[in-house]
Amino acid sequence: TSSYDSRQPIEDPEVVRRHLVTEDPSITGLVGGSSSGGRGAGGGLDDEFSSLQLQGGDITRPIYRYVESIEATGGRRSRSRSFHVPRPEPEDDTLDINSIKQIGGFRRNYIRRNEGASPTGDGRGAQPGRPFLTRNFIEFLTLHGHFAGEDLEEDDEAWTSDEALMAEEGRRDEDEEEPGEDSTLLPGRARTSGRRRSRSISQGTAGSGKAILLLLKSFVGTGVLFLPKAYSNGGMLFSNLVLLFVAALSYYCFVLLVRTRLSVAGSFGDIGGILYGEKMRILILSSIIISQIGFAAAYIVFTSENLQAFILAVTNGEMLIEIKFLILTQLIVFLPMSMIRDMAKLGGTALIADLFIMLGLIYLYYYDFFTLATEGVSDIVNFNNKDWTLFIGTAIFTFEGIGLIIPIQETMKHPHKFPKVLGGVMVIITVIFVSMGALSYAAYGSGTRTVIILNLPQDDKFVNGVQFLYSLAILLSTPLQLFPAIRIMETGLFPRSGKNNPSVKWQKNIFRFITVFVTALISWGGADDLDKFVALIGSFACIPLVYIYPPLLHMRALNTSNIMKAADIGLCIFGFAVMMYTTALTIKKWSDPNQ
């Protein structure tokens, strides 16, 4: 009712009636009163005579109808028929009539409609000119900017709230000035940065298909290439059973984290801080930092071993470069890339890296089947009682992708469907991991190398090409793994932004240099025993993130049954015991190879 005009004008139909043409001029009775002869035979406002038969009758007919309707109701009107509906503000510049009224407005409006058309129907424009694969890999990089739910977007490159306010005031001042040559033709168009716009494009709009693609990209990486050697350490039967158990348990813990996130809003670390205090938040973030630095260090060693084999093969065994020298050489690439603050600029390298990884995996499958078909199953054991603990850490390392669970869930249009989507992805990657580990171990047996690509014939030029491309892929992926650790530490150490402070910005640059050097030194220390190094990362850094923190948070966040609480407590105890046991044995084997 508020849409009606509150004013109540007095309506007098007799004033209107006086100016109407009637057949009998003597009919002048009031509408509210009654004139019995007013609607006699041929009298009154007989529309068949006085309206349609007059000149311009079609135009004046509504006026006659108005008077007749008043007569029919006896002249009683409860309120005015007039009402007021405010014109809504246009939601998009393409709908703004003020933009179209400008010079050349029709043409610009047509171009903008074509460029901003949204294939999803949400009207927000999903950049239709960008190919599907590239768009999804850019969104994957955006997820790394929100690793574990943390807002890791570089503030040195973004608008602050004060700057946004100043920009808005500047636009208002410009609108008040007389238009000149530098004035915008479309003043209503917001001039915000592309990064801020891209940050919100995919939030809460992704369907199940896009979530599946992002999850597959999150889990399938270098870890799968360490599984054949891990199978050799554990044995065929033991490794298959443990890998299936790790997959099921990891999925269960992922679901616990998802349910906790739906109950308590915040990042992985913030949820811990809300439920247990600041110390828990610091503990979770520390585990994330350690795991990401460990992943990056393992990637550096992996790349070095592949490059060493590649150079040795293409030079016919004449040039053997030390692994440690190749580690230092990679700093030439890592140091400049660590200065990149806009994740979207890594989009090209990430897409190339994933294409190379896919090519390498396809060729490995092909050669495993070829070797088994021509040479049969190699010497394998069902259980290796000497090195079985190394397999556990490597298996957990392979399945570790919990840092991207929360951001991918946040991008979904229907977050409650995420557990089902995640379950399907876990089945797919488990099939990939089990098949890759089992086939390669069956093909090469006890001779399986830590980096399975090194088992391929080194005199084959195509194999050399695969080695080089895979090395390049991991080389380009390493800065992406290191980015969350750097940003989390930067956020804690440098609360001020360096956007308008060169001193703070250079302090951040120096800190990034130091972090990259420390990561290279860690990889230097683990270069001689890569399989043990990977197992140590999985046991010490990944187990807490997957098997300890999620049940702890779930137990405190949700009011579950006693059975569920007992299960959460039991899972925490189990995870802590496995972490301590496997970490201790891995360090012992590393320090004494004869053990």
Automatic annotation (TrEMBL):
Residues 207-587 form the Amino acid transporter transmembrane domain. The chain crosses the membrane at residues 211-231, 237-258, 282-302, 308-334, 346-366, 388-409, 421-444, 468-489, 510-527, 533-554, 566-587. Residues 30-44 have a biased composition (Gly residues). GO terms for molecular function: L-tyrosine transmembrane transporter activity. One of its GO terms (cellular component) is vacuolar membrane. Residues 8-22 have a biased composition (Basic and acidic residues). It is a multi-pass membrane protein. This is Amino acid transporter transmembrane domain-containing protein. It comes from Tuber magnatum.
